[in-house]
Write a structure and sequence with these properties.
Layout: E1 15-16, E2 18-21, H1 37-49, E3 54-58, H2 64-76, E4 81-87, H3 90-100, E5 106-113, H4 116-123, H5 127-141, E6 148-153, H6 160-173, E7 177-182, H7 189-202, E8 210-215, H8 222-231, E9 236-239, H9 253-262, E10 269-270, H10 278-289, H11 310-318, H12 346-355, H13 362-378, H14 384-397
Helix pairs in contact: 1-2, 1-10, 2-3, 3-5, 5-6, 7-8, 10-14, 13-14
Bound molecules: 3-methyl-2-oxobutanoic acid and zinc ion.
3-methyl-2-oxobutanoic acid binds near residues 111, 153, 179, 214 and 216.
């Protein structure tokens, strides 16, 4: 097992994983995490810039605000595919089609619960009725775009034979991505990988579609399940910045992407993600949603690259690889040597912000600088964390 700082992406001929970010849809479904249109636009711009392939921008039928957000994102984002969610109902699909109309590249993501529990209690439909809706919904979504994703909600608790039949029919109706959600985070990595392998073996026309996975983190297994699914043949991972999402959240983008990058020896896959933008995205989402990142969170937590014990500090000073498996710079964390205090000028402050991953407009920069000076008058040294807090406040108030 090589432990090296050389975390370069694997070569181009190796397998490519599509990164589908659902921070603005599933992430926003975390209690207390809702974002307004302007906030969603800012997050979408960062996601596009960092190389996310598909941005799930929202659930257009859910509210006027969500429709508007998806519509505005569809107008502005050019590089990433913009996706809107729709239940297996004509009104949902039409609304998503309408919201996505201006997009350069658009996808409709339609879903229905397939498991016995969802059929019986949530939908009150029998298996045949659910199967019919799969065909009808995908067929309708194809009126708006030829990029249609179909999800069998609670797939990991669905009878495999029924799931395979729904997948086959979704592909026949025109779905080009088949998403397998572990909706309640119940799956275990090996078992989830077996399900993906079985889908590839049992569904006759599966080669016509990309297999995607959407793992929730109720047992803390979302990243592990996604990675095992990729090894079994999935080629799209659905994830969120900071792992936010329903209940315990979704697979975390930064963790799954960095796992593939750092362990390219074991996971020879490539993504388009500019990993140096990870901290910027994490801080923005945290500032906008008000959801603090836990200090010991992998990759983006405040302690992820901090070394407290003497032995560790000594080791890192001699050679960082003793206790660091990736370079902080590779996730956008610049160890800035600028010491900030009351004598620091606006120029140094701006440079410090850039080192920390922030690019503020002139007005926001001026406001932040005034607040920095006020703080510097009270403190001997203003630490990076103080500046991050100060700027996050600035962003929230903007
Ligand atoms: O968790 C889930 O099943 C979902 C679907 C809408 C894909 O979020
Ligand atoms: Zn979900």
């Amino acid at each position: 097992m090589a432990t090296t700082h050389d975390t370069a992406q694997p070569a181009a001929q190796e397998d490519r994983i599509i990164i589908f970010d659902t921070t603005l849809r599933d992430g926003e479904q975390s209690p207390g995490c809702s974002m307004n249109v302007e906030e969603k636009l800012r997050v979408a711009a960062v996601l596009e810039g960092m190389g996310v392939d598909v941005i799930e921008a929202g659930f257009p039928i859910a509210s006027e605000g969500d429709f508007h957000a998806v519509n505005e994102i569809a107008k502005r984002v050019k590089e990433s595919v913009v996706c809107g969610l729709a239940r297996a109902a004509a009104a949902d699909i039409d609304r998503a089609g309408e919201a996505l109309q201006p997009a350069a590249r658009k996808r409709i993501h339609t879903f229905i619960g397939t498991s016995p529990l969802h059929r019986k209690y949530q939908l009150q439909l029998d298996a045949e009725q659910v199967h019919e809706r799969v065909i009808d919904s995908v067929t309708r979504a194809r009126r708006y775009t030829d990029d249609v994703e179909w999800s069998g909600m609670d797939a990991s608790r669905t009878e495999p034979e029924f799931l395979f039949r729904c997948i086959e029919s979704a592909i026949k109706a025109g779905a080009t991505t088949i998403n397998i959600p572990d909706t309640v985070g119940y799956a275990y990595p090996e078992e989830f990988a077996d399900l993906i392998r079985e889908i590839r073996n049992q569904v006759p026309n599966i080669d016509k579609a990309i297999i995607s996975v959407h793992c929730h983190n109720d047992l803390g297994l979302a990243v592990a399940n996604s990675l095992r699914a990729v090894e079994a043949g999935a080629r799209q991972i659905e994830c969120t910045i900071n792992g936010i999402g329903e209940r315990a959240g979704n697979c975390s983008l930064e963790e799954v992407v960095m796992a593939m990058r750092v362990r390219a020896d074991r996971l020879p896959y490539r993504t388009r993600i500019v990993t140096q933008d990870i901290m910027k995205a994490s801080r923005l989402v945290s500032a906008i949603t008000g959801f603090q990142v836990q200090p010991n969170k992998a990759i983006v937590g405040a302690n992820a690259f901090a070394h407290e014990s003497g032995i560790h500090q000594d080791g890192v000073l001699k050679n960082a690889q003793t206790y660091e498996i990736m370079r902080p710079e590779d996730v956008g964390l610049v160890r800035s040597s600028l010491v900030m205090g009351k004598h620091s000028g606006r120029h140094a402050f701006k440079k410090k912000l850039e080192d920390l991953g922030y690019a503020l407009g002139e007005n926001a920069l001026n406001d932040a600088f005034v607040r920095f000076k006020a703080l510097a008058d009270k403190k001997k040294e203003v630490f990076d964390e103080d500046i991050v807090a100060l700027v996050d406040d600035e962003i929230q108030e903007a």
